Amino acid sequence: MTTEIIGTEAGDARITWHPAKKARLVLAASHGAGGGIGARDLVALAEALPAHGVTVALVEQPWRVAGKKVAPAPKTLDIGWRGLWPALAVPGLPVIAGGRSAGARVACRTAVELGAHAVLALSFPLHPPGKPEKSRAEELLGSGVPTLVVQGGNDPFGKPEEFPDGDFELVEVPYGDHGLAVPKRAPLDQDEAVALVTDAVMKWAGSLG
């Protein structure tokens, strides 16, 4: 594992690399608006994927590196992501643009522009909680590249059945909330829920040309 600081027009970003020995893809995954790269799904992917030929680059947006608690506007998030993208491409491999929540939105908005190979959207925030009329479906549907959504069955930002038909795959984590946490009463435990995420992403990444 190595860490590097990348200067962008939005400030310094940070990439933590989890390299695969025989990498064929890079998964660049950023965090949401309320958390960091310590999110359980991001940590699990960084631990699991390198053994399957996928180098994982966990990305911290400039606002997190600066120690701020509130994410800036989407436009500023996109500026930070664009600025660090060249560093993600340094290994010379196809790059999957990914992220959870707000990070997933950034990946979708910029995928075609930056030449992303695919998009991984963890807990895509389809709408603000309780406001389904404020849909962000256009961002997801407009990614323009192969896209996998991993969504909790009880995510208040959009349950799987709320998603429109479109050119993307969707994997549900039953009973999962926006952090993909499952309640104790659920028939699957947290380790099983996390395994659902990593298995789905590994299978999907393996299918990418």
TrEMBL record:
Gene3D superfamilies, per database record: alpha/beta hydrolase
UniProt entry keywords in alphabetical sequence: Hydrolase
Pfam families: Abhydrolase_11 (PF20408)
UniProt xrefs under SUPFAM superfamilies: alpha/beta-Hydrolases (SSF53474)
Domain called KANL3/Tex30 alpha/beta hydrolase-like: residue spans: 22-205
GO function terms (MF aspect): hydrolase activity
Keyword Glycosyltransferase: no
Keyword Hydrolase: yes
PANTHER family: TESTIS DEVELOPMENT PROTEIN PRTD (PTHR13136), TESTIS-EXPRESSED PROTEIN 30 (PTHR13136:SF11)
Name of the protein in its database record: Alpha/beta family hydrolase
